[in-house]
C-alpha cells in the first residue's frame, strides 16, 4: 500500500489484531487523500478504511505495556509475573499477567483503564489454566452443577446466560 499511495517511508502500518491494521499517516493531508480516493484493494481483497478513534479495539496500543499490565493486575491481587516480549518493536495485542487472588470472590470479567488524557476504556480479562470454574457466577470452588437455576432451563430446552 505504501507504493500505491506514494508514501514509502512516511506511512506506518501496525497489525492490531488478525485482519485489522492501523495505518499511521504523517499528515492529515495524506490521510484525507487516501480516504477520499478509495475504495482500495489489496491482494484482490477489498480494503475497508475507517478513520481511527480511541477504543476501537480494546485498550489503546500505547497502554499495552508491562507497567500498565502490572498496575491492572494489582487490582485483582498480588502480581507474581508479567510476560515480557522479546522484541520491543512488535506490537502487543495482549499482556499475560500471573496474579495470586482470593478464590472466595468471583473472577472479574474486566475493568476500566484510563489513558493519559483521562479517557476510560473497558478491557476484558481472560483467564488461563483455571481449575473448576462456575461459568454462571464466576467462582472457582464449584461448577455449573451447583445451581438448580442452571439445570432446569437447560433440561427443558431453555437458554441460560453464562456471564463467565
Describe the structure.
There is one protein chain. With 164 residues, the chain is of the alpha+beta class. The protein has 3 domains: 2-47, no CATH class; 61-124, no CATH class; 130-164, no CATH class. It has helices at residues 2-5, 28-37, 66-76, 148-155; strands at residues 11-17, 20-25, 40-42, 45-47, 78-82, 97-100, 110-114, 120-124. Strands 1-2 form a two-stranded antiparallel ribbon. A two-stranded antiparallel ribbon has the order 3-4. Strands 5-6 form a two-stranded antiparallel ribbon. The chain is elongated, with a radius of gyration of 21 Å. The two termini are 41 Å apart. The model has no long low-confidence stretch (mean pLDDT 79).
In short:
With 164 residues, this protein is of the alpha+beta class. Helix content is 20%, strand content 23%.
Mean pLDDT: 79
User: What is the number of E strands?
Assistant: 8
Write down the domain tally. 3
Radius of gyration: 21 Å
Strand content: 15-25%
Features:
alpha+beta, 164 residues, two-stranded antiparallel ribbon, elongated, two-stranded antiparallel sheet, 4 helices, 20% helix
Topology:
Elements: H1 2-5, E1 11-17, E2 20-25, H2 28-37, E3 40-42, E4 45-47, H3 66-76, E5 78-82, E6 97-100, E7 110-114, E8 120-124, H4 148-155
Antiparallel strand pairs: 1-2, 3-4, 5-6, 7-8
